[in-house]
Write a structure and sequence with these properties.
The chain has 226 residues and is mainly alpha-helical. 70% of the residues lie in helices and 4% in strands. It contains seven helices and two strands. It has a two-stranded antiparallel sheet. The N and C termini lie far apart (54 Å).
Length: 226
């Protein structure tokens, strides 16, 4: 009997191979699906744990400076234990389906943040004609994911609070989903404000300096140059 990963990859391959002109690419789509699972799905917890550990250490470092050093073993062990216990709590008190909606929302909003940053960088670099490439998916993913997050809070997590033994789980899901959504909205707001300054007021930021069109030393920064 094949494992779940193999079965999913075969299903992926059969679906894509059924598309017009793809009949001979069954093996290609199979390996594509296997790589997708290995590089994304199977590493999500590993990558998420390490990123969360760095965030915990950075935050704790504001209170106790040694925590901010990623090579300080006591801080690394404590922050890793805290993060692993936190995501393990969701599994011990429920199952993966209770946190999957929140994971999906966080994942898509992270993509929205990346698109917002990219769009802002393009505008700040004077490459407005390319903005549509990131702005169109940004608008789509922001609207759909924020709406999905709103529905998830009231349709999935809020009803969970009325289930005996699941009150705290529902409350934690609501809190973190709301935090992720609020942070994403703040990023969108700041991106919009920066683009307004560039497009309407004619000011760009180059290495921390605000330059206005018409100034003697005005220039658009290179793409990615803040």
């Amino acid at each position: 009997r094949p494992g779940g990963a193999v079965s999913l990859a075969v299903g992926f391959a059969q679906i894509f191979s059924a598309l017009p002109g793809m009949k001979t690419l069954m093996s290609y789509w199979y390996h594509f699906a296997i790589m997708f699972e290995a590089l994304f799905i199977l590493t999500t917890i590993d990558t998420g744990t390490r990123v969360a550990r760095f965030l915990v250490q950075e935050f704790a470092g504001k209170i106790y400076p040694p925590f901010g050093k990623t090579d300080w073993l006591p801080g690394a062990f404590f922050s890793t234990l805290l993060v692993v216990f936190s995501w393990g709590y969701f599994i011990w008190t429920g199952n993966i389906s209770t946190i999957w909606p929140m994971f999906g929302i966080a994942n898509q909003l992270l993509a929205g943040v990346a698109l917002a940053v990219t769009t802002t960088m393009l505008v700040n670099a004077g490459k407005v004609k390319y903005v549509w490439a990131s702005a169109v998916p940004l608008v789509f993913i922001s609207i759909t994911t924020l709406y999905a997050g709103w529905r998830s809070i009231f349709d999935n997590f809020y009803p969970l609070m009325s289930v005996p033994g699941k009150t705290s789980l529902g409350a934690v899901n609501i809190f973190f989903t709301a935090v992720v959504m609020i942070c994403s909205v703040l990023v969108l707001f700041e991106s919009g404000k920066r683009m307004f300054v560039v497009l309407v007021k004619g000011r760009v930021t180059v290495k921390g300096r605000s330059l206005k069109k018409g100034d003697a030393d005005f220039r658009y920064p290179d793409y990615g140059e803040a």
